[in-house]
Amino acid sequence: MKKIAVIIPVAESEDSQMVLSSAQRITALDYQNLIAKIVYAVDVNSESDERIKLLKKESVEVFPRQRRGKRAGAINDALIYLADFKPDYVALFDVDSRPARNFITCCVDALENDTRAYIASSRRYISNPVNLVSRTIQAEYYVLNFLLKLSAFKQFNGLIGVLRASFLYKHKLNEGAVTEDADYATRMHARGYKAILVGTTRIYEQSPVRWRDLLSQRKRWYYGGLQLWRYWDDVKRSKNKKFICSWVTALTMTYCIIFLLPFVIVSPFIILLHSPKISPSVSAGLILYLLALQYAAIAAIFFFVRGRSVEWKSMKRVVE
Questions:
Q1: What percent of the chain has pLDDT over 70?
Q2: Burial 49-82 (b: 16+ CB within 10 A, else e)
Q3: Given pLDDT bands bounded at 50, 70 and 90, which one contains residue 115?
Q4: Is 34 exposed, middle or buried (0-12, 13-18, 19+ CB in 10 A)?
Q5: 152: closest CA among 193, 93, 106?
Q6: pLDDT at position 72
Q7: Can you give the pLDDT at residue 279?
Q8: Where are the beta strands (DSSP E) in 183-285?
Q9: How far is CA 161 from each of CA 7, 55, 64, rounded to the nearest angstrom?
Q10: Which residues is 128 bridged to in the sheet?
Q11: DSSP state of 319
Q12: Which DSSP symbol is given to 174?
């Protein structure tokens, strides 16, 4: 039987209830015909971290660590911890990830059928549409899911999905990258590997619920995108025109997001046509959203040019 390791990094700031809810959801997934080991890599926040005690009651392994290398460091350290297990696949989730029960099996099947694929994942949806901020991002995700299907550069945020373990052990995550997920996706696509969008499952995750959290998150994403230009020569050497075009588009047009503002005028009609569950009032949120993203892009460029780093800040969660 094939082996799969499931890694969930837990930052110091994550709430105990969120972590417990995560463990209950991840252990309930379908692991049919797989030998699974679930590991929570916890950045401990005290000598008696309550989260560790809660996790140990949920039949998962806990790997306590002192924060090093941020999320990429947690995953790399967990891979070392799992070396003796010798997994065939590695599933990566965040504490707010809420995958469908068949997520693991569907993604593993996709990888089994394509040896050139390094990751398989699904479309994303928002699990906490509780206010204008999160409902606006919910509308954004419908657009991103559509573009993800078309793009030849499929980059799943956070590398949330199932990855081929041999590739992950060979090409570790870059702990110096602000956005380690986009960094890894770029390197793997440039080497000729591919990412699979699986249409038979889905996953939910939390979005920011405060504008300041959205600004902080997107400024970090934009800054990480600027770092990706270090791989331009590798991208060109791939000679994959569709990938090159998608990659360049993602790293240029998104920094001029304000040009989409005129489309907000017709957005209520588009929303009603394609997503009746989303309120047309989100159109007002889309205006604020575009302005916020443009500000975040400009701020990221300013920080990057000045050689200043961006700070990772914890995001307010909606406790389940």
A1: 93
A2: bebbebbeebebbbbebeeebbbbbbbbbbbebb
A3: very high
A4: middle
A5: 193
A6: 95
A7: 60
A8: 194-197, 203-205
A9: 10, 21, 23
A10: none
A11: -
A12: -
Instruction: Look up residue 208 and give its two tokens.
Output: 């920011």
Q: 278-305 b/e with 16+ CB inside 10 Å = b?
A: bbeebbebbeebbebbbebbebbbebbe
Cα atoms found within 13 Å of the Cα of residue 99, Cβ hemisphere only = 29
CA distance linking residue 250 with residue 10, whole number of Å: 29
Please give the structure tokens belonging to residue 184: 């890894």
- Strands in 98-99's sheet, in edge-to-edge order, are 98-99, 203-205, 124-126
Closest CA to 219 of 116, 130, 298, 113: 298
Residue 312 token pair: 């990772």
Query: Which stretch of DSSP H or E encloses residue 171?
Result: none
Rounded to 5°, angle at Cα 168 from 146 and 83: 140
Give the gyration radius of the chain's Cα atoms: 19
> 65: which 2 tokens?
């660590």
**What domains are defined for the chain?**
1-95 (3.90.550.10)
Quick one: which of 135, 124, 126 has its CA closest to 284?
135
Distance CA 95, CA 160 (A): 11
pLDDT at 260: 72
